[in-house]
Design goal:
152 residues, Collagenase (Catalytic Domain), four-stranded mixed β-sheet, 5 helices, 17% strand
Length: 152
């Protein structure tokens, strides 16, 4: 059974192809299956909204790039299980992309992988590097770099 992925764009600052982002997350879920989860959501927000979430849920009065909210694991009355929700600040992602010389599209995909791994229970703040190694592997396999031709 395929994971049902909902992508919602609640910011107006940047154009984002939500269909492409949803398709990408489906590939991530195919690579690292979500167990018995049936659904998940990704919400794209402004810095202001992300700052509110970060303050409310983490006690940090600043924006951040990505937050993950794993579900409690209990199935809904209909038996469906929601994996959780990922929230990404598009303006913060755009700033990070610019600093790294990347596209916003690529940065949103990297942050989506990061958030998805958190939903699965990975935690880079407490593990021995397992999550970041897994993220690097997924980035390399799902977001390969295009070869750059140099003119000689």
């Amino acid at each position: 059974m395929k994971l049902e992925i909902t992508v919602v764009n609640r910011q107006r600052g940047s154009r984002v192809d939500t269909g492409s982002l949803r398709s990408f997350l489906e590939r991530v879920a195919d690579s690292v299956p979500p167990g018995d989860a049936d659904s998940m959501a990704l919400c794209l927000v402004s810095d202001r909204k992300m700052r509110e979430y970060n303050r409310e849920y983490r006690g940090k009065d600043a924006t951040t790039d990505v937050l993950s909210f794993p579900d409690d694991g209990e199935p809904a009355p209909d038996g469906q299980r929601h994996l959780g929700d990922i929230v990404i600040s598009v303006p913060e992602a755009a700033r990070q992309a610019g600093e790294r010389g990347e596209t916003l599209q690529r940065e949103l995909r990297v942050l989506s992988i990061h958030g998805y791994l958190h939903l699965l229970g990975y935690d880079h703040e407490t593990d021995d590097g397992t999550m970041m190694r897994k993220q690097s592997t997924l980035v390399r396999s799902l977001l390969p770099r295009r070869a750059v031709r140099s003119e000689a």
